[in-house]
Design brief:
446 residues, mainly alpha, two-stranded antiparallel sheet, 18 helices, 78% helix, 3% strand
Length: 446
């Protein structure tokens, strides 16, 4: 471990603009790229039943492709971050754009599970390249507003699918899911590829503005091996998995759930809008998810990470319980899933912030990348939801998810909070004692 310092980059001669407006433009382009990969995860649910109807592979087998995608997307982020540091963001995002197009084009031609799974690998590689690069670039351009920049960038991934849910659903209905895969795959990849030419990192240091936060934050930078040896990291990892499992299951299975509840095509009127319950639900889910990420990041800066986790995880458990009991009502289904995703998306802003608070800023990208792999671990539970639902119904799946979220809420307050404070204070005290002992030894030998 090393004591924290504010890292600076030697000024380099460059014509690159460093104005505030230019860095906001970089942020916006990153958000658009994130929106273009959102459908790979959040639009997938629209394709599950059409694929099953065409090939009769079974939902569990089809959903395994979703698991492969998420595992590939999350577990390769540390490797992709290394390529970004070595070659810059442009080439990595261009590569990501090509891969996501290739993935959906392959999906459009997939006539076997092997080809469907291969496409999921390509999609995961492409999405991970874009996701990790855009979040990392936002952190570099906004050292003074990292929470806002990371939350806004992650919101692009959470809410990006909201704009295309209706067009994709309409194309599936009118032209078939193969045409939707092909056309949107080419379009999304092309936009990412073009924007990659204009995305770049800052070539001069942008000093952060110091501010006091009512949060426990370490003064020590812990290396990745030290983080992996710390119990608090694995407790946070476990809680991340518990919460992410329910969200990924719901995102992947929301269409099958709506169809099984026989409400997918039931018209729902809300706030002057009317559309089918499933389409309405997915659209609102993406909007609430995107809004929740920066919002809960801001809340956690005010009242603390663990208290915000307790509120969010507890609300998630309540919404899942509502879906279990009253989800057959189309309006309840739409509203409950919207609120649920509004509090679920915060894990992608809260856990990176908590990781940085606990282990320091110097190795924050790598340390957070290791924690982010919890999403991939959680995705391994998604196919199990289909199996449980087949045997016991969706209510059993919801009950398990409720239990996981409720337990995670309690662990946030009564396990993570005291462990984090003990870890931070204990290590700082040990470091100060070691420093004092070294100074005393030097004084005696002088």
């Amino acid at each position: 471990m090393v004591s924290s310092t504010t890292a600076t980059t030697p000024a380099q001669p460059s014509a690159q603009p460093t104005s505030s407006g230019f860095r906001w433009l970089q942020l916006v382009m990153g958000i658009v790229c994130m929106a273009m990969i959102a459908n790979l995860q959040y639009g997938w649910t629209l394709f599950v039943d059409p694929i099953d109807g065409a090939h009769h592979w079974g939902r569990a087998a089809i959903q395994f492709a979703f698991t492969i995608f998420v595992v590939t997307e999350t577990w390769l982020v540390p490797i992709e971050a290394w390529f970004v540091d070595k070659y810059g963001p442009r080439i990595v995002i261009m590569f990501g754009g090509v891969m996501i197009s290739l993935a959906w084009v392959l999906n459009s031609y997939a006539d076997s599970l092997a080809l469907l799974y291969t496409a999921a690998v390509f999609g995961g590689i492409g999405a991970g390249a874009v996701y990790g690069t855009c979040v990392g670039n936002a952190l570099k351009w906004f050292p003074d507003r990292r929470g806002l920049a990371a939350g806004a960038t992650a919101a692009g991934f959470g809410a990006g699918a909201a704009l295309t849910v209706v067009p994709i659903a309409n194309m599936i209905a009118s032209s078939g899911y193969q045409a939707a895969f092909f056309d949107f795959g080419i379009g999304q990849g092309l936009i990412v590829f073009v924007l990659a030419f204009f995305i770049r990192p800052p070539l001069v240091s942008i000093p952060p503005k110091k501010k006091q936060l009512n949060l426990p934050q370490t003064k020590i930078d812990f290396t990745p091996p030290q983080v992996l040896r710390s119990p608090i990291f694995w407790v946070m990892y476990l809680v991340f998995v518990m919460v992410a499992a329910g969200g990924l299951m719901t995102a992947a299975q929301i269409a099958p759930i709506a169809h099984d509840y026989k409400i997918a095509n039931t018209p729902v009127s809300l706030a002057g809008f009317q559309m089918a319950a499933l389409t309405f639900a997915i659209s609102l889910d993406r909007i609430f998810d995107g809004f929740g990420r920066p919002f809960f990041g801001w809340v956690s800066d005010t009242i603390g990470r663990e208290h915000t986790m307790f509120i969010a995880f507890g609300t998630a458990a309540l919404m899942l319980l509502t879906l279990s009991s009253w989800g057959h009502n189309p309006l309840v289904f739409v509203l409950a899933t919207a609120v649920y995703f509004g509090v679920f998306g915060e894990i992608y802003s809260l856990f990176p912030a908590t990781c940085g608070d606990t282990f320091g800023a110097k190795f924050a990208t790598t340390n957070n990348g290791m924690l982010y792999t919890a999403k991939g671990t959680a995705s391994l539970l998604v196919p199990a939801a289909s199996i449980i639902a087949t045997s016991y119904g969706w209510q059993a799946v919801f009950v398990i998810a409720v239990a996981l979220n409720a337990t995670a809420a309690l662990m946030a307050l009564f396990v993570i909070k005291p462990l984090r404070r003990a870890f931070i204070l204990g290590n700082e005290a040990a470091a100060e004692a070691a420093s004092a002992a070294t100074a005393e030894t030097k004084a005696k030998t002088a």
